[in-house]
Amino acid sequence: MRIKIAHDARPQVRTLLFAAALTVLLWFVPFAELLTYPFRIFVTFIHEGGHALAAILTGNSVHSLSVAMNGSGEVYSTTGGLLSQLFVSSAGYLGAMAFGALLLILIRRTVAARFVLIASAGLILVLTAAYGFFSPLLHASLPSLFTLVAGVMLPIGLIAAARFAPPRVATFLVSFLAVQCVLNALFDLKTVLFLSSPLAMGVHTDAANMAAATGIPAFFWALVWVGIAFAILSMSLRAYAVSKNKPSQPDLPFEDPLEV
After folding, report:
1. Per-residue CA distances from 204 to 10, 70, 91, 116, 254 (Å)
2. DSSP conformation class of 258
3. Mind listing the pLDDT tens digit for each residue in 160-201?
4. Is residue 17 part of a domain?
5. Which residues lie below 8 Å from residue 220, measured CB to CB, with a gap of 6+?
6. What pTM value is reported for the model?
7. Within 13 A of 3's CA, how many CA atoms are on the CB side?
8. CA 17 to CA 114: how far, in whole Å?
9. Is residue 95 assigned to a domain?
C-alpha cells in the first residue's frame, strides 16, 4: 500500500519526525536521560491522572496520587464493581497514549502551541493539588514531597515555555511531549507484557489487577492494551496526516489532496 501524506500536513510531520528522531538519538547518548527526565515525570503524571480520572468517572474516590523519583507512580482509590475496576486499571497506559494522540491532533489542527502548553500545565497542577495534596490530607496520610515539587516545577516550566519560547520552539515542545507520551506508553506496555508472562509470576502491575478482578490471565489484558494502544495511535496518525481541507478516502490512511 502506498503511504502518502497531505501537502498541508508535511510541515507538522517534519516537526514530529524530528522530535521522534531526537528521542531515539537520546537513547544512545550517555546521561541523556537527565535531559528527558522531566518528560518522563510528565508522562507519569498523565498515566496516574488517567487512573484518577477513571476512578472519579466510575463513582469512586481517589485517596492519593503520587509520583516517585524513579518515574513510577501510584494512585490509591476505592474500588467499585467489576466494570469500574476494569476501566480504572486500563486508564493508565491507554490514558497516556490517548493524551499523546490528542496532542498530535491539536498540533495538526493548528491549535496554538502556547495554549496546549498552558492547558497541560493546568492539568498537572490540578492533579497535584487535588489528588497529590488535598486528598492525602483528607484521608489522614502525608502527601508525597516529590509529587508536590514535581507537580509545581513542571507547570512552571511549561508556562515559561508558553510565555517566552518562539512559536516554532513551542510547537516542537508540544510535538516532543506527544512523542514522549506515545513512546513511553508503548515501552511501558512492552514491560507489562513481559511482566505478565508466566516467567514473571507475582509481579504487581495494572494487568495483575485486571487478572485479580476477572480471573483472566494478566498476559491477556496486556495484549488487549497493546492492541488498543496501536489502534489509538493509528487513528491519531491518520487524523494528523490527511488533508484538513478535503475528506479522506476510507481505504487510504495517508493521502495527498487531489490537485486541480
Report:
1. 43, 17, 16, 34, 40
2. P
3. 999 999 988 998 899 899 989 998 888 888 888 888 877 766
4. no
5. none
6. 0.85
7. 3
8. 20
9. yes
